[in-house]
Amino acid sequence: MHKNRKRQSVSLDNRNLFLLDLDGVLYVGKQRPHLLGGLQLTERLRNLQKRIIVLTNSSTDTREELAQKLTILGFDITLDEIVSSSYLTGQFLKERYGNADFFLVGERGFREELEAAGHRSKEEGTVDVVVVGTDRQLSYDKLDRGVQLLRGGAKLVASHVARVYMSDGSVKVATGPIAKALEYGSGKKTIAIGKPSAYMFRLALRIGEAIPGESVMVGDQIDTDILGAKRAGIFSILTLTGVEDIHSIKRSKIKPDLIVQNIDDITSYLPTSRKSQI
Fold it and tell me: In Å, what is the CA distance from 111 to each residue of 2, 152, 221, 245?
């Protein structure tokens, strides 16, 4: 009974922009993604003429690769509807440094996004910035080189500082712990670009041509997706297919506006057609 009353009290009719997280929400697995949900929701949103943006902290793939994975899984998501932390880091560096020389502690996809934005990867000599992303081939030499460059004057920029992400049914180490190691070794502070940073949400709202009060963020992590949405004044929905569970939700002081088991459960809070919406 309580669940039904709660369901009736929430309506997303007047929400026109839906920001959807990727890992742990739409799919899991970087090499061979496994669908978690979202096909039903995105189809309903298209029918209702709502705007969709995939807003992800993922830095291991280019946006083109993310779009290909979504297409293979059956999603109708265009390249322009994907905002990744690697893409956003490239834009941030452009605004801050023009074309920057960078040393990357991260993976190939991140390097390609930065180079596509006009920045130059350097393994030798000085650089403007040490850039950090999730790195599944992390080595002592990479960390040591990064620390030396930072101590020599380079700035430290991370795609995000989340501790973990959901992949292949288990929680994996993300970018945050790597950035912390570089901070500790160099004494430098990290400039974090992805969720929960306001920078990422401002760009998403600008692309989606929406204001916070008419937007929704759907994610699986409290300290990135939900915290960032709340700071931005955006309605937040937490799915239970990723990092969080009922125990972590109870422990957290940050509470989502709505909790669903699966992203497709959100369709029950939407009208069935544009006509019924009007």
Answer: 49, 22, 26, 33
- Go through the domains of the chain in sequence order and give each one's CATH number: 2-85+196-277 (3.40.50.1000), 97-192 (3.40.50.1000)
Would you state the pLDDT for residue 6? Answer: 47
Exposed, middle or buried: residue 172 (CB in 10 Å: 0-12, 13-18, 19+)? middle
Q: Which of 63, 151, 57 is nearest to 103 (CA)?
A: 151
Among 157, 271, 220, smallest CA distance to 26 is for 220
d(CA 36, CA 88): 25
Q: Which parts of the chain have pLDDT scores under 50?
A: 1-6, 8
Q: Could you give the dihedral angle defined by the CA atoms of residues 215, 219, 224 and 227, in that order, rounded to the nearest 10 degrees? A: 50
* Cβ contact 39:6 at 8 Å: no
Amino acid at 1: M
Cβ contacts of residue 3 below 8 Å, gap of 6+? Answer: none
pLDDT tens sequence across 128-171: 999 999 999 999 999 999 999 999 999 999 999 999 998 876 89
